[in-house]
Amino acid sequence: MSIMSWAEARDIIRNSIWKQNAGLVQILGLCPVLVMSSNIVNGVSLGLATSLVMLVSGAAVAAVREFIPNELRSPIFILIIAALVTMVDLLMNSYVHDLYVVLGIFIPLITTNCIVLARAEAYASKNGVAHSALDGFFMGLGLTVVLAILGAGRELLGKGTLLSGIDLVFGPAAKSWVIHVIPAEWNYQFLLAILPPGAFIGLGFLIAGKLALDRRAEAKARLAAPQDATLPEKQAA
Amino acid sequence: MNTSPFFVKPTPLQVVMLKVAAALLPAIAVYVHVFGVGILLQLLLATVTALATEAGCLKLRKYPLKPFLSDGSAIVTAWLLALSMPPLGGWWMVVLATFIAIAVGKHLYGGLGQNPFNPAMIGFAVMIVSFPAQMSRWAAPLALPGVDLDAAAQIAYIFTGSLPAGLSFDAIASATPLDMVKTALIQHGHLGDVLSGALFATGGWLPSQMGWIALAYLVGGLYLLASRIIPWQTPLAFLAGLGVLAGAMHLYDPGHYTSPVFHLFGGAAMLAAFFIVTDPVSGPTTPRGRLIFGASIGVLTYCIRVFGGYPDGVAFAVIIMNIAAPFIDQYTQPKVFGRKAKQNDSRKKGAKA
Questions:
Q1: Contact, B327 vs B306, CB < 8 A?
Q2: Is A166 part of any domain?
């Protein structure tokens, strides 16, 4: 038998991506989510960097959880996370330097991103290495998905493009990959979507959308099981 | 002390909104005289958009259409918005602004009576943040030499953006007085002779002919005050907050700070005083709270105008104070008649317990 059953893994993944999504349900790490979601490339880059840190920090915290005195756990978690973030910071600086310049302070700030510490505290300090690594990675991916959708929406509404800035990751050759949904010569611009208020409004719409989807699924489940259908409906009324 | 709860027949919302719209009519008439009939088209576009958006939102929310559409609140919002936008702005600007005001500013929060912010100001703020260049392209008063746009040309310009041959937009456009003063201060560091320019000369003792429109708002506002549609506290406190601060600064350095008359009759101050800060939904409801609310908006408006980046600050000042309205309400509850203030202060009692 392997260290984790499929059912367990599936539960962790579903929980991290949807049920307890870092961006939409826990609403943790709001600051980088709001700042870096002005386009897809920034959002996904920061999301993936965070996922990588969470994958390793989950595993590392889980591995040493037996030896950490309870009173000292926060500083130790932060030390572990900070060390990992420094590695990611140096790696990005050397391999994707242009993007590193754009993301700026938000790479080192992954250390203070609440979602990383929250998962270390709430999950990795109580579960095994494999579970914690999986949980951390998919929590990060859940955040990445939110960043990608929010970034796409803001970019599309604000500038009429998708994937702008992709050349920061793949070099100047990638400049032609930028999709101009609205032709570039129209000079379309809707500044509000790009500016900070757009991030708040966009995130609000995403949270509302997720709640609506959840409610719809709930209603469907209720229809599928008609014998319990009367009670919850009465409660709702 | 508030009036006792004697039986009174509440004025139906429809009548209130009708009177507010009627109070705007003198200003609209002066507006047409100063800038031409373009504003009428803007008002029409805003009204149609507001009603269509309202109907769409009501339908989505499964509310009955007729009682809500006919209460007139959407139309008043639309008119206020159209009156604060550039008179010769493209048709899409006023349509987008009205859509945002009604859909986002009003219905996303739960519709009439539930909106924490003034919907018209939300629409305006979104536009000025998103399209600063287009929003500051104000039309020049027709009284200025060389400005000659007949009704057909104005309507064509609003819809197509093209002017009759031989006329460039620069010839018929002009910065607003507030904008001009701001530019002069940035460029020279003092007012200089900007106040004696051609634009200002058109208005007599008021800052340009836009001051005439402000005067007409004042007339309409006094009618609303007389018919008790709006309370006196908010407009008075707003005008006092703005005017006193402007007066003090003007006395301190007349070469740098313009006169209180300029501030009270320039920009959207008069429109705001009687039609915007008096919004019963998004403002506080206690008499003392209204004084604080109005005065704060006046002071904030002055600060944003003089020290901020935007030429006029009414919209942002109103939105900022809308956030504070519930807080102001909580701390300005009037005492019940016949009791001493301290005995009735349940808040303090609650804090001790």
A1: no
A2: yes
Inter-chain touch A191–B126, beta carbons under 8 Å:
no
pLDDT at A6: 87
How many CB atoms are closer than 10 A to CB B72?
17
| Cα–Cα distance, B326 to B284 (Å, whole number) | 6
User: B88 — phi, psi (to 5°)?
Assistant: -110, 25
Angle (CA) B53 B54 B59, round 5°: 100
A194, A202 contact by CB (below 8 A): no
Q: Tell me whether residue A237 is in a domain.
A: no
Taking contacts as CB-CB distances below 8 angstroms, the residues of chain B near A197 are 129
User: CA gyration radius for chain A?
Assistant: 20
pLDDT at B353: 40
Alpha-carbon distance of B323 to B108, in angstroms, equals 16
| pLDDT of A44 higher than 70 | yes
Does the pLDDT value for residue B225 go beyond 90? yes
What residues of chain A lie within 8 A of the CB of B126, using their CB?
192
User: Which three-class secondary structure state does DSSP give residue A44?
Assistant: helix
Parent domain of A72: 6-213
Taking CB atoms and an 8 Å limit, are B129 and A191 in contact across chains?
yes
d(CA B341, CA B353): 19
CB contact under 8 A, B129 and A190: no
Asked, for residue A94, whether it belongs to a domain, the answer is yes
Give the 3-state secondary structure of residue A38.
coil
Instruction: Give the span between the Cα atoms of B234 and A11, in whole angstroms.
Output: 57
Structural domain total, chain A: 1
Tens-digit pLDDT profile for residues B83-112: 999 988 889 999 999 999 999 999 999 888
Contact criterion met (CB < 8 Å) for B130 and A197: no
> In chain B, whose CA is at the least distance from the CA of A205?
B108
Q: What is the ipTM metric for this complex?
A: 0.77
Domain ranges of chain B: 12-173, 176-335
Residue closest to B175 by CA, chosen among B163, B166, B187, B160: B187
Residues in B closer than 8 angstroms to A191, CB to CB, are: 129-132
**pLDDT per residue over B41-70, tens digit each?**
999 999 999 999 999 999 999 998 888 888
Distance CA A168, CA A161 (A): 16
Q: Sort residue B171 into left (φ over 0), alpha (ψ -120 to 50) or beta.
A: alpha
- Specify if A219 maps to a domain: no
Please tell me the pTM assigned to this model.
0.84
Q: Which residues contact B153 (CB under 8 A, 6 or more apart)?
A: B163, B164, B167
